Amino acid sequence: MSKVIGIDLGTTNSCVAVVEGGVPVIIPNEKGERTTPSVIAFTESGERLVGSAARRQAAVNPERTVASIKRHMGTDWRKNLGGKMYSPQEISAMILRKLREDAQNYLGETITDAVITVPAYFNDIQRQATKDAGRIAGLNVLRIINEPTSAALAYGLNNGAAQKIMVYDLGGGTFDVSIIEIGDSVIEVLATAGDNHLGGDDFDERIVNHLVAECRQRQRVDLTRDTTAMVRLKEAAEQAKKELSATEAATISLPFITQHAGQPVHFEATLTRAKFNELTRDLVERTEGPVRSALNDAGIAASELGRVLLVGGSTRIPAVQEMVRRITGKEPSRNINPDECVAQGAAMQGETLSGSTALTASTGILLLDVTPLSLAIETVGGVATRVVERNTTLPIHYSQIFTTAAAFQSSVEIHVLQGERPMARDNKTIGKFRLKGIKRAAAGVPQIEVTFDIDTNGILTVSARDKDTGMAQSITITANEKMSEAEIQQAIRDAEQYASQDGAQRDKMTTINEAQRLLNVTQDALNRHGKQLDKEEKKRIKADMALLTKIVYKAKPEKMSDADFEALKRAAETLRLSSEHLRGMDT
Q1: Annotation says 201 is catalytic
Q2: Is 169 a catalytic residue?
Q3: Is the pLDDT of residue 557 over 80?
C-alpha cells in the first residue's frame, strides 16, 4: 500500500507530513519550505500559481489572487478568476493538489490517500466541503479529523503518560480550544469550544486599519482607494506582527505605496508592541470565553491540566501566551512546533488507518471526538427538551421516553432542534417528521421512544417508536440541514446573554404546564367522584378550578409579569389543597 499523507489545510499556511521509519516527517515543497502559503493566483497569461509564487505577486495582481479561502469553506462564496467562477472547494483543491505533488516528488511514488485536518468547530457542511476539495485534488480522504486532536496525537507519541491537556489553537483564521485526555492508546476529546472567525487575519486587519488612519491623518491620503496599496499594507502588517513577537517595536516602510495629486506617496511608521497589544486586546480576550467554557464542559479545573499546548502561528504573540498563563496558571509547553504538529498528527493517524505497523507507538490509537451543540426535541409548551448534551462523545446512541400531551392522539410531530436555549423557537430546526399509528389513549399514557444516533462522521438519525403498537418512523439529518457556524456561535452567545431570562421563562412554562395537568386530573376526579362530595366542597373546588383556568388561559411566559406568575402559583396551590381529598379518591 502506498504512503498516507497528513495535511494541515490552514488559513494562512498549509503543511504536509508523512511517517517514515516510525516518525512523522514534514515534507518540504520544491523551494525547501516546510509550510506552503495557502494562496493561489492566475496570471494574465492564464498561468496558475500556488504558494509563495502566488503570494509574491499579490500586490501587482490583487484581483486574480485569493488568500484565506478557508474562511469561506461551506458557503456559497464564489470568485471570478480568469473569467471562470471558482468555489472554495475548487480553490482549496488547488492548494491540496500542490501539497500532493510535493509529497509525490519527495517520496518518489504516487500518493492517493490522505488524512486532512479541520478546526474542531467546523460544522458538517464545512467538513464535507473540505472532503470534497480533497476529492477534487485527486485524494482519497480517509478521515477528516480535528486540528487540536491531531496536535494532541503528535504530542502524545513522545509523551505517553496518561494526562489531561489543553490544546489552544489560534491559527490564521480560526480559533479552537479542546480539553483532551490522553490514555492508554486512547485520545479522547472531553470538550471543545471556539470561534471560526478569529485568527491572525483579524490581528493583521487591526494593524492595517491603524496604519490607514495614520496615513489619512498625516498625509491626507486614503489608501483604501488603492487595491494594490492595501495588499502591500496587509503584507507589511503581517510582517510587523511577526517582528513584534520578538522585539518591542517594528518599522513599516512602504515607498511609492500610491499616488496622490500626481505625486508619489511614501509611507513610514513605527508600531510598538504596546500599541499592537492595545489594538488587539479585545481579540485576545475573545479567546478567554471558549477556554473557560471548554474547561467547564469538561468538568475540570485548570489546575488539573497536565500540559497546555499552543498550536497555530498566532500563538507566538506574547499577549496571547500571557493570557493563557493567566487563565491556566501554567507555562505553555514548547516541545512541539505550532506550525507543524497538526500535519504530523494527521500523518500518524493516516499511518494507523493504513494498517501499517511502522508506527508502533500509535498503532490502534482510538480517537474519540464530540458533538459541539446540544440536540433536543420540542415538547408541550414549546420547550426544547434535551436528548443529547453538547460535548457528548461520538458515536452516540441515546433514547428517551416521551408521551402525548392531549387525549386520544393518534399521531405526534417530532421536531428536532439544535442549540443551547431552553425554548424551541430560540434554537435551530434541523428536522421534523410525524409518527402515526399511536394507540388512542388518555394523555400521558402512550410511551413514545425517541432515539438519537450520531455516527463517527457526524451524520444524525432520529427515530421514534410507539412502544405499544410498535409503529416507528425516522429521519436522517444531513449536513445541509444542520446549523451554520455563524448560527452555532450566535446560539452559544445568546444562551450566555439570556441565561437568566431563559431560566425564568422556562420556570413559567413549567408551572403553566403543571397547572394544566392539575386541572385535567381534578376534572377527571370530579367527573368520577363528584357525587360523593358535599355541596360546599364541590362548589369550592369548582371555583378554584375556574380561577386557575382563567389565569392559565391568559398566561404567556414571555409576557407574564412577576406578579402574574405569583398569582398563577397561588391559584395552583389553592386548587391543589382544595382538591386533595377528591384526587385522593382515585388511590
Answers
A1: no
A2: yes
A3: no
